[in-house]
């Protein structure tokens, strides 16, 4: 994780942006580098500036958060995006997971939890609220229930070990330490895992591992 996390706030309400900035100023590792009021501005800012984490509202004018997420991930796939929304709705979350979001946080979240989520995403972790996990897994199972091949049979023993670690929320650094390998090796394993099981990111890989009962939650 970088010593300083460059974070962009994207929300169409000025009062919320101001409140978020004050909350995040408590954490010395978080550096709020900008604030924007719509998805189009968020895309432009991320294209032109060094941003590590984007705190993204879903319902914004001109371009909503879902479309902004899709475009930003095309430009900077390594940028961590955390959706901050009042909507506890499956369809938002499923779309965002598909586009590679790293976290999904409801706006009634405690400030400490928000900060911890940002720090976790900066470490390469993912976060889905427990209240939504069961529904996400059910939808993931429905979408993949027609598959006859168990794709994780294509994985090596070491890749399965790495996948299990990802499913329990471990960062690349933690995985490397636990398995006595380098972080670069962990990244190489993840690239192979994603390709073999047909997923795009850590969140989808974790959901796959839980669905196939490689880990228990």
Strand ordering within the main sheet: 2-1-3-4-5
Gap between N and C termini, in Å? 26 Å
Number of helices: 10
Q: What is the highest CATH level, the class of the largest domain?
A: Alpha Beta
Q: In angstroms, what is the radius of gyration?
A: 17 Å
Overall structural domain count: 2
Q: In total, how many beta strands?
A: 5
The average pLDDT score comes to 84
Low-confidence stretches: none
CATH domain fold name of the largest domain: Rossmann fold
Share of residues in strands: 5-15%
Secondary structure: helix percent: 40-55%
CATH architecture level-2 label of the largest domain: 3-Layer(aba) Sandwich
The secondary-structure element order is EHEHEHEHEHHHHHH
Class per helix and strand makeup: alpha/beta
Could you describe the largest sheet, including whether it forms a barrel? 5 strands, parallel
CATH superfamily of the largest domain: Response regulator
Shape label: globular
Keywords: DNA-binding, Phosphoprotein, Transcription, Transcription regulation
InterPro entries: CheY-like_superfamily, NreC/VraR/RcsB-like_REC, Sig_transdc_resp-reg_C-effctor, Sig_transdc_resp-reg_receiver, Tscrpt_reg_LuxR_C, WalR-like
GO biological process, one term: phosphorelay signal transduction system
Protein name: Stage 0 sporulation protein A homolog
């Amino acid at each position: 994780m970088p010593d300083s996390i460059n974070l962009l706030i994207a929300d169409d309400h000025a009062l919320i942006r101001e409140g978020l900035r004050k909350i995040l100023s408590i954490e010395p590792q978080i550096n709020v580098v900008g604030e924007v009021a719509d998805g189009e501005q968020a895309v432009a800012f991320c294209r032109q500036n060094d941003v590590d984490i984007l705190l993204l509202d879903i319902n914004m004018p001109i371009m909503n958060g879902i479309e902004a997420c899709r475009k930003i991930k095309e430009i900077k796939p390594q940028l961590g995006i955390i959706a901050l929304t009042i909507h506890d709705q499956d369809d938002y979350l499923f779309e965002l997971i598909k586009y590679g979001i790293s976290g999904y946080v409801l706006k009634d979240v405690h400030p400490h939890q928000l900060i911890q989520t940002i720090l976790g995403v900066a470490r390469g972790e993912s976060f889905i609220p427990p209240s939504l996990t069961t529904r996400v897994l059910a939808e993931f199972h429905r979408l993949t229930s027609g598959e006859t091949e168990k794709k994780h049979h294509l994985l090596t023993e070491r890749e399965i070990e790495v996948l299990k670690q990802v499913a329990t929320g471990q960062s690349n650094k933690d995985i490397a330490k636990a398995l006595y390998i380098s972080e670069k090796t962990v990244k190489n394993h993840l690239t192979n895992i994603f390709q073999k099981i047909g997923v795009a990111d850590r969140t989808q890989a974790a959901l796959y591992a839980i669905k196939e009962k490689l880990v228990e939650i």
